[in-house]
Design a protein that fits this description.
Length: 523
C-alpha cells in the first residue's frame, strides 16, 4: 500500500511539474521580448494616475518621464497599461509596421453614452462598421470634391464675420485709432457657424441666423459639454470593475447631454427629410443631405439609418469646430508676440492679393509664408497634444525588442515629438521660415512623422483638407483686412489650459484697425 501511494505521489508530482513547465514555456513563447521601461512612482491599484492630477498638463508630465525613461515606456492607468511613444522614429513604427495592431479604440464612457453607443466613426471599435463609415467619410463627406463644393459656405461665413468686426470698428473706433476686441470668442463663433452650416445648413449667430436664440444657445451649451466630457476623468474608464457604479455622476450627465444632442440633430434631420420630399431632385447642400442620399441604398450592419446619419453628422460637427478656433487663436497670438513675422505675412498678402480685393481660396497656394505660419502653429500647439484613443488588438514586439500585450492603450505624445531639438533647432521658438528652408519638405498630412498634428495611419483624422482650407482662408482674410496692436506693452499670455484640446487659457484682446475698405466686401 505504501509503495502504491509512493508511486501515485511520484506520478502526481511529475505531472504537476510537467504542467508547470509546459505553461512556463508556452508563456515564454507568447511573451518573447522584454518588458517596457516603467517610470517610478506607480501606486497600488491606481498606478500612475496620481501623476496627472492637480491641473498638470498630461503631455508635459509624459515628456518629463520620457526624458528619463526613453521614447517608448509603459505607464499604469488604473487597471490598464498604456504604451507611451515620444519620438518620431517610434511613431513611424507604430503608424506603419504596427498600424493595424493599434487600430482599435478603447471602450470609454464618453464614446458609449455620447457617441450613440460607438456609432460615432471617430470612436468606433475597429471592424466592419468602422471601415464602412471611414470609407463614406473619406470618399463622400470629406473628399477634395466635397470640400470644394462647400467653399461658398466658408467664404460666406468668413465675410460675414469680418463685416461684424468692421461694424464694431464703425461703432466704437475711429480712423485714427482702432478698437479693442476679444478675438477668442470671435474665432469660436466663426468656426461653429461654419461647422453647423456645413453639417446642417444653419447659422447659429450673427446676421441671417437660421436657428432661434434658444436653439443656438442650446447648441453651444451641449457642444461645450460634449467636449468637456470627452476629456473628463471617469472612474470606470480606468477601473472597469466599477462599470455598474456612477459615483461621480458623470454618466448621468452624459446621458442627459446625449438626449439633448439627439433632439437637436434629430430636429435638423427631420427638417432635411421634409425639404427633400417637397423639393425632389434637389442636390446635396450639406453633410446631412449627403448622408441621406448615401443611406437610401447603403446597407450598414449595426445601426439603423437615422442613428448612423445623426451620429456621423454630430461627429463632423464637434470634431473640427473647436480645434479650428483654438488653432486660429494660437496662430494670431504667436504673430502678435512676433510682430516682424506678422509684418512679413501681411506683406505677402499685399504682394499676392493687393488691397483692392478680398482673399479667395484659390490664392492660398501662393501664400507660402502664411502656410508656413500654420505649420509652425501646429508644431508648437497641436490641437490634440496626446493622441490617446487607440488600443492594441493583439500582442506585438517593437523594434527595440519590447513586448506589448494585447489590450494595451496607446498614447502618442505629439507635443513632445514636435519639440524634439534633434529635429527642430530652437524647438520652443516660433520660426515659420524653417518650413521654407530646412524643413520645406515636411507636411502635416501624416506622411512625415516629425509633424503629425492630425495623427497618422488608418485612424488619422479624415478631415485634414477641410481643416486646412478653413484655417488658411480664415487667417488670411483676417490678417488682410486688419492691422493689429496689443492694448498694452505686455506680450500675449501663452498659458495652456488642461483638457481634451490644447486651448489657450486666457482671452485674446487686441486692438484692430481696418486695412481694407468695407466696400471690398460689396458694402
Amino acid at each position: 500500500m505504501d509503495q502504491t501511494f509512493q508511486l501515485l505521489l511520484t506520478f502526481a508530482s511529475t505531472l504537476c511539474a510537467f504542467i508547470f513547465l509546459a505553461r512556463y514555456f508556452h508563456s515564454s513563447r507568447r511573451r518573447v521580448g522584454r518588458s517596457l521601461p516603467q517610470p517610478d512612482g506607480a501606486l497600488p491599484v491606481i498606478g500612475h494616475l496620481h501623476c496627472f492630477g492637480g491641473g498638470k498638463l498630461t503631455y508635459k508630465v509624459l515628456g518629463a518621464m520620457a526624458d528619463k525613461h526613453g521614447p517608448a515606456m509603459a505607464i499604469k492607468l488604473g487597471s490598464h497599461k498604456a504604451l507611451v511613444i515620444s519620438s518620431w522614429e517610434m511613431a513611424r513604427e507604430i503608424f506603419t509596421t504596427h498600424d493595424k495592431t493599434f487600430s482599435d479604440r478603447p471602450r470609454i464612457a464618453a464614446s458609449k453614452f455620447l457617441g450613440y453607443d460607438y456609432a460615432f466613426f471617430g470612436v468606433a471599435p475597429y471592424g466592419e462598421y468602422w471601415r464602412e463609415m471611414r470609407k463614406i467619410a473619406t470618399l463622400h463627406l470629406l473628399s477634395n470634391r466635397q470640400v470644394e463644393m462647400l467653399s461658398p459656405i466658408r467664404k460666406s461665413e468668413v465675410e460675414s464675420s469680418i463685416r461684424e468686426l468692421y461694424e464694431m470698428w464703425a461703432s466704437n473706433g475711429s480712423p485714427e485709432r482702432g478698437f479693442v476686441a476679444d478675438l477668442q470668442p470671435w474665432f469660436r463663433n466663426l468656426s461653429r457657424n461654419m461647422s453647423v452650416r456645413m453639417v446642417g445648413g444653419k447659422r447659429l449667430t450673427g446676421d441671417g441666423v437660421d436657428c432661434n436664440k434658444e436653439e443656438a444657445r442650446r447648441c453651444e451649451k451641449v457642444i461645450r459639454e460634449f467636449l468637456y466630457f470627452f476629456g473628463v476623468f471617469v472612474l470606470s474608464d480606468y477601473f472597469p470593475f466599477l462599470e455598474w457604479l456612477d459615483l461621480q455622476g458623470h454618466k448621468k450627465r452624459m446621458k442627459r447631454i446625449a438626449r439633448e444632442l439627439d433632439n437637436l440633430v434629430g430636429g435638423w434631420l427631420e427638417e432635411h427629410k421634409k425639404r427633400r420630399r417637397s423639393e425632389k431632385g434637389m442636390g446635396a447642400q450639406d453633410f446631412m443631405d449627403v448622408m441621406l442620399e448615401i443611406m437610401e441604398d447603403a446597407q450598414i450592419y449595426g445601426f439603423d439609418a437615422d442613428t448612423i446619419i445623426k451620429a456621423t453628422c454630430l461627429n463632423m460637427l464637434v470634431a473640427g469646430s473647436d480645434a479650428t478656433a483654438v488653432t486660429l487663436t494660437w496662430a494670431l497670438s504667436l504673430l502678435l508676440n512676433n510682430p516682424t513675422v506678422l509684418d512679413k505675412v501681411q506683406e505677402e498678402l499685399d504682394t499676392q492679393i493687393g488691397r483692392d480685393r478680398k482673399v479667395n481660396e484659390s490664392d492660398i497656394k501662393n501664400l507660402v509664408f502664411l502656410q508656413a505660419v500654420i505649420k509652425e502653429t501646429f508644431r508648437l500647439y497641436p490641437p490634440g497634444p496626446v493622441n490617446g484613443l487607440r488600443s492594441s488588438l493583439k500582442d506585438c514586439i517593437l523594434s527595440q525588442g519590447y513586448h506589448v500585450p494585447a489590450g494595451t492603450r496607446l498614447m502618442i505624445n505629439i507635443w513632445k515629438i514636435h519639440r524634439d531639438e534633434s529635429i527642430w533647432p530652437e524647438p520652443n521658438e516660433f520660426k515659420p521660415e524653417r518650413f521654407l528652408t530646412t524643413h520645406k519638405h515636411i507636411d502635416v498630412r501624416g506622411q512625415h512623422f516629425e509633424l503629425i498634428p492630425f495623427g497618422s495611419g488608418r485612424k488619422s483624422c479624415p478631415g485634414i483638407q477641410l481643416s486646412l482650407q478653413t484655417l488658411h482662408i480664415s487667417l488670411a482674410t483676417l490678417l488682410h483686412c486688419f492691422d493689429f496692436a496689443l492694448p498694452s506693452d505686455e506680450k500675449i499670455d501663452m498659458s495652456e489650459s488642461a483638457g481634451l484640446i490644447n486651448a489657450k487659457a486666457t482671452s485674446l484682446k487686441v486692438c484692430l484697425t481696418p486695412r481694407l475698405p468695407i466696400t471690398v466686401f460689396g458694402h
